[in-house]
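Take a look at the protein record below and tell me what you see:
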Amino acid sequence: AACHVLLFDETGTEIATGRITPEGEIGRIAVINSCRKPEVYQQLFAALLAIAEQQGMQTVSVQCELEGVSYYQQQGFRPVGAVYMDAGIPRQRMACDIKQFSLPKVEFTH
């Protein structure tokens, strides 16, 4: 089963969530509009990567829009599989070794 992360602000209000599947796919990222700041995304991804490491995953993946492919490649990701359509938007699965995962702008996965 997938593992889900839920972030709370200092008042206990839920502000962000994401999941990682047993196959290492990070997705279902949702952040409240007013909280879409780099530090929130960094905390969310740090928690998801910690789960991946605890489960012994070697590789993680994300789904990105086509215009993000070159950005992810610069960060050490590689395309996996064919481009597919999701709600009318062309997307590409990108994967990388968990030890190389360092996205300074993880908000682009949203």
